[in-house]
Design brief:
By secondary structure, the protein is an alpha/beta fold. It contains 16 helices and 13 strands.
């Protein structure tokens, strides 16, 4: 059975890498399961794409659509027309899509229209926030998905409420955590560690990229001001997403404890996440990683599609008002942040369960 594995943007790579590893393990055992890796090129620069392939041992893609930058509509159109040509040349039995980026939705639609079975890794998650392009991608993808590989009981309930038959919902766990746990002994200390003399649990890590936080330059500066002033003398390490960098004049950021750096590879970033005292972010995936690592997490969003990181993990939803940061950081500094646990099946074995189910439907 030939499976197309679709990856297009940075969050996809951590989710797809362990699935490739699990398929190769089956192949070594004599299975006729095969895959074709399709990289849409939605993220195309080295720090957002290439480094992840190298560090996570993802093979060179069999297909690279090279769609590059553009509006969401432009990217969707380029991905769909490019992937349609791939399907015309050779049609797989299954198209496996992961996450909630534009590539996920575009390839799922194209595959379904070509009569290919669609499976969605991380199906069923919902934020309820229709301002987020990712929410549109999730709902559209799930409306045409044949099998849903879910990460949580919340995702299962969302799908059941949507009317999805129980036999189509496969509770497998979280492939993102497979990558995390599988690489903890390979982490790489980034240059910033020695450059500013960082110490374990004595610095704050921050990532920001969502429009609600970064597209208004004044609001973005207010977030940075609140973090740096409330953190006192604690170093704040800020790997800057390309979208965020466009809105900032780095020379104007006059905070002695702020260290704005380039985006970094997966192994370097997880090294910092594992060793920081807290992470401030608007990323969904990072809240999952922080939960498993037991790192206090502050999410600058009004909603989340990953409520398990709040109900069971170390994450708290602060909203998008920068003024919420000061009291949260005060609780952190006073040692009053909650202790979390690890959600069910986030055990590093999710990809094996996915491949087992794929074999059952071959």
């Amino acid at each position: 059975m030939l499976i197309d594995l679709v990856a297009g943007a940075r969050p996809n790579f951590m989710k797809i890498a362990p699935i490739i590893k699990a398929i190769k393990k089956e192949q070594d055992a004599g299975s006729r399961l095969s895959f074709r890796l399709v990289h849409t090129g939605q993220h195309y620069d080295k720090k957002m794409s290439g480094d992840f392939f190298e560090q996570l041992n993802i093979p060179t893609p069999d297909v690279n659509l090279g769609v590059g930058s553009g509006s969401q509509a432009e990217q969707t159109a380029k991905i769909m027309t490019g992937y349609e040509k791939v399907l015309d040349e050779k049609k797989p039995e299954v198209c496996l899509v992961v996450g909630d980026v534009t590539s996920t939705m575009a390839c799922a639609i194209t595959a379904k229209k070509s009569g290919v079975l669609v499976v969605h890794v991380e199906g069923g998650i919902r934020s309820g926030d229709w301002r987020m392009p990712e929410e549109v991608n999730r709902v559209v993808t799930d409306s045409i998905t044949d099998y849903f590989y879910t990460t949580s009981k919340y995702a299962n309930e969302n799908l059941k409420n949507q009317g999805v038959p129980r036999e189509k919902i496969v509770y497998v766990g979280n492939t993102m955590i497979d990558s995390l746990l599988g690489n903890l002994d390979r982490l790489v200390q980034p240059g910033i560690w020695n450059k500013v003399s960082l110490e374990e649990r004595k610095f704050i890590l921050m990532t920001l990229h969502r429009p609600s936080n970064v597209d208004d330059g004044k609001n973005l500066l207010e977030i940075i001001r609140e973090v740096c002033s409330s953190a006192s003398n604690v170093p704040v390490i800020f790997p800057i997403h390309p979208r965020t960098r466009k809105m900032l004049d780095l020379d104007a950021l006059k905070y002695n404890n702020l260290h704005a750096i380039e985006p970094m590879g997966y192994l370097e970033f997880i090294f910092l996440l594992k060793n920081c005292m807290a992470i401030i972010t608007d990323s969904g995936g990072i809240t999952e990683e922080a939960t498993v690592l037991g790192v206090p997490c502050m999410t600058l969003r009004d909603s989340t599609e990953r409520p398990e990181t709040i109900e069971e993990g170390t994450n708290e939803l602060l909203g998008t008002d920068p003024k919420a940061l000061k009291p949260a950081l005060e609780r952190l500094m006073n040692g009053n942040w909650k202790k979390g646990g690890i959600p069910y099946l986030w055990d590093g074995k999710t990809s094996g369960r996915i491949v087992e189910h794929l074999l059952s439907i071959a």
